[in-house]
Backbone:
């Protein structure tokens, strides 16, 4: 703006949206590439202080002797690692602390202005952590290394992670980063966006309330079912490198909160019917996601449990069985289907005038299709012919009759 000449007609300087009387700024999807932020927008000394304080708080909560301690799957050397299951406790204690800070006059709405500096600090932290992880992995015994993370190509190994379960004593760095600071941080950033909206508009909008509560439910659900993460690919197969460190600490909290951040400057009005339809989509998605995940976890933990013992199964050469009825008889990844319905329900409250709120659902569809393909290959290698007959019985991967 400062470079424009004084002779330019005023009407050309005003954004098109403002000229036409819209309340929100212009959608910039057609102005590609978008302008990059200035360096000073990426730096605020408060950001690294807040970020490190947040990490330290969650490290302390991880170590507190609350909740049960459980064992992970059997490792290559025959041992099983112990993990504290107190993520949900950490969420509750963080909520109480946050309420205390708010009562003491903390301005959570400042997270809106701090969004970019915090994201930049989180990216810097994930690089530092990844360098530490890469270097320390050279001192790890061979059986502690991830099978896929030791190709000898330093860039690839740095990215994918060399050591499977890097630990400092009882403190498991990968397990710690997977859910706690990033997921709870995402919920707090969302709350900051809601408070910013209240500051600007006087009250929270229905669209913002839907987005924030849907995502809070997702975070609380993940922490409530924290034990289930011990059998996921991230914990069982992948080493801890830049991919997971960046994903957990920077990507999740700062891109998953984009819908709430978008709504601050782009208020949306939802009719009751629209809101009801979106809530219904979320409820359907959550039901499929939770029930299918719980059904498989229950089956893997105790196949004789009454809730799963009557389901039809296929035997495999490994001794494990595969479910072919119930949720896992509908498609081969019903949990991904439910997750994608939920992702769409988070975007719809933001309307259709911009692509940004749909970034998550688009990225997540690509991620889950790729993840499904990766899992499919691992299952084929594990179960061979039994997997082929499962695929014949259940031909669709994620979307019934589509994919
Ligand atoms: P899954 O929970 O889908 O687990 C896949 C494993 O389940 C397979 O390797 C196999 O392992 C077992 N399995 C597959 N088919 C059957 C069957 N028919 N019967 C019994 N067991 C079967 O893995 P993910 O970790 O990918 O997903 C977990 C959840 O996390 C999902 O809901 C997903 O949507 C969500 N997620 C969310 C992300 C986000 O960023 N929001 C990112 C990634 C995942 P085995 O036989 O060895 O037990």
Residues:
């Amino acid at each position: 703006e400062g470079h424009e000449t004084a002779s330019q007609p005023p009407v050309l300087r005003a954004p098109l949206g403002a000229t036409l009387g819209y309340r929100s700024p212009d959608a910039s999807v057609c102005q590609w590439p978008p302008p990059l932020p200035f360096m000073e927008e990426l730096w605020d000394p408060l950001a690294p202080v807040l970020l490190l304080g947040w990490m330290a708080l969650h490290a302390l909560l991880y170590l507190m002797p609350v909740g049960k301690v459980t064992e992970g799957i059997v490792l290559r050397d025959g041992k099983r690692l112990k993990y504290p299951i107190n993520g949900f406790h950490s969420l509750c204690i963080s909520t109480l602390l946050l309420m205390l800070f708010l009562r003491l006059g903390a301005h959570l709405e400042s997270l809106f202005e701090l969004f970019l500096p915090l994201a930049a600090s989180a990216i810097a932290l994930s690089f530092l952590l990844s360098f530490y992880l890469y270097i320390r992995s050279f001192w790890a015994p061979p059986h502690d290394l991830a099978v896929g993370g030791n190709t000898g190509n330093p860039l690839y190994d740095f990215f994918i992670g060399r050591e499977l379960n890097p630990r400092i004593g009882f403190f498991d760095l990968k397990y710690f980063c997977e859910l706690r600071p990033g997921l709870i941080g995402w919920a707090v950033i969302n709350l900051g966006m809601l408070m910013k909206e209240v500051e600007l508009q006087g009250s929270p909008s229905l669209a913002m309330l839907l987005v924030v509560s849907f995502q809070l439910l997702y975070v609380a659900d993940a922490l409530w079912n924290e034990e289930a993460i011990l059998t996921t690919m991230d914990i069982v197969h992948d080493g801890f490198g830049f991919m997971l460190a960046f994903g957990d600490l920077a990507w999740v909290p700062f891109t998953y909160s984009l819908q709430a951040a978008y709504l601050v400057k782009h208020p949306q009005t939802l009719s009751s019917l629209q809101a009801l339809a979106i809530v219904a989509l979320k409820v359907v998605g959550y039901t499929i996601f939770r029930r299918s995940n719980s059904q498989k976890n229950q089956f893997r933990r105790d196949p004789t449990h009454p809730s799963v013992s009557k389901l039809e199964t296929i035997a495999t050469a490994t001794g494990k069985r595969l479910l072919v009825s119930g949720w896992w008889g509908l498609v081969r990844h019903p949990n991904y289907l439910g997750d994608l319905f939920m992702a769409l329900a988070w975007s719809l409250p933001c309307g259709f005038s911009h692509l940004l709120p749909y970034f998550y659902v688009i990225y997540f569809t690509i991620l889950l299709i790729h993840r499904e393909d990766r899992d499919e290959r691992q299952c084929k290698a594990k179960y061979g012919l039994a997997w082929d007959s499962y695929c014949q019985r259940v031909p669709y991967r994620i979307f019934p009759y589509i994919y």
Summary: The radius of gyration is 23 Å. Residues 295 and 308 are 7 Å apart (CA to CA). Residues 232-233, 289, 293, 296, 299-300, 320, 322-323, 328, 333, 335-336, 339, 371, 375, 378-379, 390 surround NDP (CB under 6 Å). The chain has 16 helices and six strands.
